[in-house]
Amino acid sequence: MDNKKEREEEAERLQDTDAPPYRPTVSVLEPESSQRSPSRKGLTSNLIFAVISCTVGSSFQFGYNIGVINAPRTIIIEWMTEVYKNRQGPSETLSPLGNSSNATGSAAAEEEATKAYIKLLWSIVVGIFCVGGMMGGVTTAYWVDKLGRKRTLLWNNILGIVAGALMGLSKLAKSYEMLIIGRLIIGINAGLSSGAGPMYLTEISPLHLRGAIGSVHQLVVTISILVSQVLGLPAILGGETSWPFVLALTIAPAIYQLATMPFCPESPKFLLINRQQEGKAQKALIKLRKTSEVYDEMDQMKTENQQLLSEPKMGFKSLLTDPALRMPIIITIMMMLSQQLSGIIAVSLSHFCINIVPEDKNIC
Q1: Which residue of 114, 160, 199, 248 pairs with 254 in a disulfide if CB–CB is 3.0 to 4.6 A?
Q2: Sequence-separated (6 or more) residues with CB below 8 Å from residue 125
């Protein structure tokens, strides 16, 4: 019994001797602010300034010129009719034989022909904007790679100023051809800005804000459509003598971007990947992020570019025949069709006509 007790005491003594000393577990954690990557700090003043400069000069231009032509439609058509009739000269009210009935029938036919011609001209005024948009859109990739995102936006403002001048002076010059050419040029401007603008926004944004900042483009487009509809009301700038000003107002966003965009940096991704100018890309990132710790973001850009280059290039035929892309393409097409066929444009226009200008049915 004593031996058993002695063995237990000896085991306890050895256990206490061999056991390591107790050390409390202390969690030494860095503050959350020091653990956070510089690119996770959110918006900086330089980034906000660049976003505003880009969207006002590109996104606002796009949306503004979509809706600006709608409200003063009736007044512009009346002006075009007057210009056309003045060019044709006074029409004979009586036939050479003095038959007033024939003259009346001829005048009525001439009036119908004039209405048809003016309707065709007005269709051209409205539709030529879309033609210009296609021309600008298909050339965006060439210009952003050749000139860069920033310089493309800057040069594009020249088109906006020229277009605004042509449209604004068309009434003074009594030339609806100037109005048509101005709409074509501003359409090219809108096509270029709708491609180069969002590209610049996404490439200057940190990864965790890329989606939010990229959506600012569509937000500003929607706001600018509303602004153009309101400014085009007869009580504001859509009157008989003031409608050229609402069209010429498109010069203002162009001048704003020309004045502010030179202070914004070029797209760091363009400088690093397209131009292989790592030093300039680093300076651009430092200016946007307001921190010198941008190496991780630059490495991420390089990794994304390497992954992109490693993927096989696909043509239009491969896009349609690749089974892996079939379902995403179907989903995309159905989403676009559902948006266009949902009637949202008709609803928004009818809301404008019914609730904003119910007394003037000729506006819509």
Answers
A1: 160
A2: 69, 76, 176, 179, 180, 183
8 Å CB contact between 247 and 164: yes
CB proximity list for 162: less than 8 A, separation 6 or greater: 182, 185
What is the rounded distance in angstroms from the CA atom of residue 71 to the CA atom of residue 120?
Answer: 19
Q: To which residue do tokens 């069709």 refer?
A: 337
pLDDT in tens, 247-283: 999 999 999 999 999 999 998 888 888 888 888 888 9
Block residue for tokens 């965790």: 208
Residue pair 154/258 in contact (Cβ under 8 Å)? The answer is yes
Cβ–Cβ < 8 Å for 80, 122: yes
The two structure tokens encoding residue 226? 């509303």
The whole-angstrom separation of Cα 204 and Cα 150 is 11
pTM above 0.90, yes or no: no
- DSSP state at residue 99: -
Percent helix, strand, coil in the chain (nearest 5)? 75, 0, 25
**C-alpha distances in Å from residue 270, one per residue of 71, 78, 265, 355, 357:** 40, 49, 11, 46, 47
pLDDT 10s digits, 56-85:
988 998 889 988 888 888 899 989 888 888
Q: Which amino acid is at 13?
A: R
